[in-house]
Design brief:
Elements (H helix, E strand, L loop, with lengths): L15 H4 L13 H19 L23 H4 L2 H12 L8 H13 L10 H11 L6 H20 L10 E7 L18 H8 L2 E7 L5 H10 L3 H4 L5 E2 L9 H12 L7 H6 L4 E6 L13 E2 L24 H12 L4 E6 L11 H8 L5 H26 L6 E7 L22 H4 E7 L7 E3 L3 E2 L3 H8 L14 H6 L7 E7 L2 E2 L9 E8 L2 E6 L19 E4 L15 H14 L12
Parallel strand pairs: 1-6, 1-7, 2-9, 2-10, 3-12, 4-5, 4-6
Antiparallel strand pairs: 2-8, 7-8, 11-13, 13-14, 14-15
Helix pairs in contact: 2-4, 2-7, 4-5, 5-6, 6-7, 14-15
Length: 595
């Protein structure tokens, strides 16, 4: 049979081997076009590997022990979901059968192409493939002739115009809620708090509802988000030097404040690493580490210590509460300059003072909620409203498709119904109310929305963003790059995540252990919490430490952590204690590990 003039008689099966040889323009190549596409992809991969200084056929990934087929391992370099599907076509063609699976895959490409933000007209051909695939019956001569023409044209595009398939670097927007419980969203099941914008973001995201931050206090948590390191490593374990050892605003106290801020200089921050790829960056909202430039941001709102009000944000704390103009101006300029950008949006919301607009508060006052609870609920909705404004800016600029939006909370909060403060076992504490948060990744051009059940930590956010932006991930980062798992949907194989708790007031800014109060590890449904004898100073009521021994909870059966099961599972307590020691060896502080 002449492959250049394939004719299929009614009811006559197609020879699988011959069906691989579709008619192909002689001006390009007369060989098997699928193999041509495959070779082109492999060449692209080799080239990308050389430019990155890596062995292009080394398919091992540091975040997982699993092996990837060499051909499909091109994904980290090619980065375009439709192109990934075409690679799958070439692979599946080896097992070509009468159901013609590759055409079904091309139909999926056509669906994705509707949102494609690169003006590549030939993608319109894919829609025709999708239409033809629906009529495929293995006996229609006209279909075969037309479909092969379309498919070969598509391969011609691959061979002649590889640059048209390349992704531009994604913009990155990090949304950081301030003092919000992991339960307090519509998409997390709250039956009163209204968060329509974040609910919509969740529907468009890979959502980890079992997300955590390693520390339950804003400054160390934010420092982890900007450096990718745990608090015991970056050294900013609390919010302030302890006033017990130096009077506030004294020369010694301010020297210690300056020394704490200087710890950020030890690291290449996320904005600095992204700048190596041409990114511009903007800081708004909560920021403790001096001027925004200290963190490597191109522009920002916070003047920082020693400026007046520079303790934790000064002018940056106006974002959201007083509009979104600085953010919108930055995005406008980045788009105008054709620059990829990183945006740090960490508004002082729903953080106290709880002063929501009356138009929102009225919704929650109408019920029987205590006033402090009604105000807090209204603050959560107000925060959600500002997130909607931010996402609207991306939509208006038509850049949402290629923007990676990451959502996380700095630490938890459970509203005290009798006061404006927080209830026990929430902020500052290592219980679920202090450390748990939904973590979301939304990137329409690359990621399919889904709910994931695995454990993730905010320690994973920096390496994941760097990988998405094509930046080499520093080897000393303790988190894992989640991007391959986000793209493939494959399960994260890491067994456990870790965390620690320190006092708000730092007893010794040169010795993190001096203020160490807790360490914890979560594996599957089990959480082990160990209590230490570090110094608290203020906030004694937040840290009663009435239980000195190990605490073991089954988080699935007992999410409120009301039943300590350590005595029933002593072997598990010892095993998890050993994991904590391997993660962060404690030399001076004391704890009890025997139930």
């Amino acid at each position: 049979m002449n492959p250049s003039a394939a004719v299929v008689a009614d009811n006559q099966p197609i020879d699988n081997k011959q069906s691989l040889f579709l008619p192909f323009p002689s001006a390009v190549n007369t060989m098997n076009p699928i193999l041509s596409m495959r070779r082109h992809l492999l060449r692209s991969r080799r080239s990308a590997g050389r430019s990155a200084g890596k062995n292009p056929f080394d398919t091992k990934r540091t975040s997982s022990a699993r092996k990837v087929r060499p051909f499909l391992a091109a994904r980290p370099f090619l980065k375009v979901r439709p192109f990934h599907l075409l690679a799958k076509v070439a692979t599946d063609a080896r097992a070509w059968n009468h159901t013609v699976q590759p055409f079904h895959l091309l139909a999926k490409v056509a669906t994705l192409a509707r949102a494609w933000n690169n003006p590549v007209r030939p993608f319109q051909l894919l829609a025709k493939v999708a239409t033809l695939a629906r009529a495929w019956k293995l006996k229609t001569c006209d279909f075969w002739a037309e479909a092969t023409t379309v498919f070969n044209t598509l391969i011609l595009i691959c061979l002649l115009s590889p640059s048209a398939w390349a992704d531009s670097p994604p913009n990155v927007v990090m949304i950081i809620s301030d003092d919000q419980a992991w339960t307090d969203y519509g998409f997390m099941g709250h039956d009163q708090i209204q968060t329509p914008n974040l609910d919509q973001l969740a529907r468009e995201s890979v959502v980890f509802k079992r997300g955590y931050v390693p520390t339950a206090l804003c400054r160390p948590s934010l420092m982890t988000l900007i450096t990718g390191h745990y608090a015991h490593r970056h050294g900013v374990t609390g919010n302030d030097p302890s006033p017990k050892y130096a009077e506030r605003d004294s020369e010694l106290y301010n020297q210690r404040r300056a020394q704490l801020i200087s710890y950020i200089d030890q690291f290449q921050t996320l904005p600095e690493l992204l700048a190596s790829k041409g990114y511009v960056s903007h800081q708004s909202g909560k920021w403790w580490e001096g001027n925004f430039s200290r963190g490597g941001f191109t522009v920002g709102m916070t003047r920082g210590f020693p400026e007046r009000g520079g303790r934790h944000g000064d002018d940056g704390l106006k974002i959201g509460r007083e509009g979104m103009q600085p953010v919108e101006k930055f995005v406008d300029q980045a788009v105008k300059d054709n620059k990829p950008f990183f945006l740090w949006y960490a508004p002082f919301l729903p953080h106290t003072p709880h002063t929501p607009p009356e138009r929102i508060l009225a919704k929650y006052r109408s019920g029987e909620l205590p006033e402090p609870v009604a105000k807090y609920y209204a603050m959560c909705e107000w925060f959600d409203e500002t997130c909607g404004e931010l996402l609207g800016i991306l939509d208006d600029k038509k850049i949402r498709e290629n923007t990676l939006v990451v959502y996380v909370t700095d630490n938890g909060w459970i509203q005290d119904p009798q006061s404006n403060g927080y209830a026990p076992r929430s902020k500052q504490t290592p219980y679920e109310g202090g450390i748990r948060t939904p973590i979301m990744f939304s990137w329409p051009a690359r990621l399919q929305a889904e709910d994931r059940k695995e454990l993730v930590s905010s320690i994973d956010i920096v390496p994941t963003i760097l990988a998405a932006c094509g930046v080499t991930v520093p080897e000393d980062l303790p988190g894992i790059n989640l991007l391959p798992n986000l793209e493939s949907g494959e399960e994260i194989t890491r067994r456990q995540i870790f965390g620690e708790g320190f006092a708000h007031d730092i007893a010794d800014i040169g010795d993190p252990e001096a203020s160490l109060l807790y360490r914890w590890v979560i594996r599957d449904n089990w959480k082990l919490l160990l209590t230490y004898d570090g110094e608290v100073n203020r906030y004694q009521s937040t840290h009663p430490r009435s239980e000195r021994g190990p605490q073991l909870f089954d988080l699935i059966e007992d999410p409120q952590e009301s039943r300590n099961l350590a005595a029933q599972h002593p072997e598990l307590v010892q095993e998890l204690s050993g994991e904590l020691d391997a993660w962060y060896p404690v030399k001076e502080r004391k704890t009890i590990t025997a139930p």
